[in-house]
Write a structure and sequence with these properties.
Blueprint lengths: L1 E4 L6 E5 L3 H12 L3 E5 L2 H9 L7 E4 L8 H10 L5 E6 L14 E4 L4 H37 L2 H6 L1 H31 L2
Parallel strand pairs: 2-3, 2-4, 4-5, 5-6
Antiparallel strand pairs: 1-3
Helix pairs in contact: 2-3, 4-6
Length: about 190
């Protein structure tokens, strides 16, 4: 069974949890800030992920669901190139297997509303960081080609090159800010 709860945010969070009362609780925690799709089990989660009309930004997965484990849902996400960040939200204490698991974060139950909101916010920031890093790399490559192929005088006269240089500086500043925010949140989480 799948339930969709809407909020004002553009980000969509998938909650995959086989215990309906927990799934509903997590949905209530998040629905004020995000659009939430609730899947009451692993098979329902995979159904949501395969739905081409659904765009999931963050997936919160329980590791132990009887129909299809969160590990298998995560494997589905990774194998099919789903463009979402993933956190395991589970009663399973982490072992060294999480190193190679392919998830972005790991929360051990019980979790609070603040825990869930923090992990979703952190994973969305991580996505933003990755996207801006790709943009920066692309712009730097173009700048470097132009520096090799054009004379200094041509570069100095070009408004477009000046704009490109400004965009690079702006993206670098944004990445620094996001990186600092992510580092601060990580430090605060472990205090």
């Amino acid at each position: 069974m799948i339930d969709v709860s809407s909020a004002t945010s553009a980000a969509t969070v998938l909650v995959a949890e086989d215990e309906q009362h927990l799934a509903d609780l997590y949905t209530d925690y998040l629905a004020e800030d995000y659009e939430v799709v609730t899947a009451y089990g692993g098979e329902a989660a995979v159904e949501v992920l395969r739905d081409e009309t659904q765009s999931i930004d963050v997936a919160l997965l329980d590791r132990r669901m009887p129909d299809l484990s969160g590990d298998k849902v995560l494997a589905e996400i990774n194998e099919n190139g789903c463009d979402c960040r993933v956190a395991m939200v589970t009663a399973v204490n982490p072992g060294f297997d999480i190193i190679d698991m392919g998830c972005d974060d790991y929360l051990v139950k019980p979790v609070s509303r603040a825990d869930l909101l923090d992990v979703v916010e952190r994973l969305l920031k991580l996505s933003e960081y990755s996207e801006k890093h790709q943009q920066l790399t692309s712009k730097k490559l173009k700048r470097n080609v132009l520096k090799v192929e054009k004379s200094t005088a041509e570069l100095d006269r070009s408004d477009r090159f000046e704009r490109l240089t400004g965009e690079i500086e702006g993206l670098e500043a944004e990445l620094d800010e996001i990186g600092e925010d992510l580092s601060l949140k990580d430090v605060q989480r472990h205090i």
